[in-house]
Amino acid sequence: MKNLESLIKTYNDFPREGIAFKDILGIIQDTEVFRDLILKMSSNKVIKSSEAIISIEARGFIFGSAISLQASKPMIVARKPGKLPGELINENYLLEYGQSCLSIQKESLDKFSSYAIVDDLLATGGTVECVANLIRKSGKDVCGLVTVVELEKLGGRSLFDFPVESMINL
Ligand code: AMP
User: Fold this and answer.
1) How far is the CA of 50 from the centre of ligand 1 (A)?
2) In angstroms, rounded to a whole number, what is the distance separating the alpha carbons of residues 19 and 17?
3) 22-61, pLDDT tens digit by residue?
4) Closest ligand 1 atom, CA of 59?
5) 161: exposed, middle or buried (C-beta count within 10 Å: 0-12, 13-18, 19+)?
6) How far apart are alpha carbons 114 and 21 in whole angstroms?
7) In the chain, how long is the greatest CA-to-CA distance?
8) How far is 30 from 54, CA to CA, in rounded Å?
C-alpha cells in the first residue's frame, strides 16, 4: 500500500536485544494514509463475513475501533490480565520469553456467532492463536485475521486454518 511502509519505523533491539520492533504509530499521524488503510481493511472479505470484530490490546484497538465504525460491526476486546471487570474467559499463550494471558468478557461473546480478529502486527502468531482459541472454546466461529503488518519470515500464518489478510508484508 502506497506510503504505508515509509510510515513504519524499525527500532532494533527493542524491547529486547534481537527484536526488530516495527513502530506503526506513524500511520495514525498521517490522516490520509490512515483513512485509506481503514477503508481497505474495512472492506476486506474477512470483516464483511463476520458479525463482529475482536481487537487485541493495545495497538489492535486503534485499528479495530476505526474499522468497527467504518464497517458498522460491533467491536469487542481481548485484554491483558487485570484490565477487564466481570466474568471472563481466559487463555494463556507463549511469548518468545515466558507466558502471557488474554481475557474476554464472557457476556460480550453471547450476542454474535462469528468474529474477525483485528491486530496491528502478526509476528509468530501466538497472540492471534490465543484469541482464536478463546473464540472457539466459546463455541463461536473465527472468520479470519485482518492485520496491518505481517512479518512474513516468522511464518505466523502457518498456525492458522483461517484466512490471514495483511496490508503489508515486512
Ligand atoms: P506474535 O504473538 O508473536 O504474533 O506477536 C504479535 C503481537 O506482539 C502484536 O500484538 C504486536 O503488537 C506485538 N509484536 C510482536 N513482534 C513485534 C515487532 N517486531 N514489532 C512490533 N510489535 C510486535
Assistant:
1) 24
2) 6
3) 999 999 999 999 999 999 999 999 999 999 999 999 999 9
4) 12
5) exposed
6) 31
7) 43
8) 25
Pick from 103, 161, 160, 165: which is nearest to 137 by CA?
A: 103
Q: What is the CATH number of the domain that holds 117?
A: 3.40.50.2020
Whether 78 is in the pocket of ligand 1, judged by its Cβ within 6 Å, is no
Q: Domain count of the chain?
A: 1
Question: pLDDT, tens digit, for every residue of 80-102?
Answer: 999 999 999 999 999 876 789 99
SS3 state of residue 90: strand
**125 C-beta closer than 6 A to ligand 1:** yes
Give me 130's grid cell.
490465543
| Segments forming the whole domain that contains residue 123 | 4-169
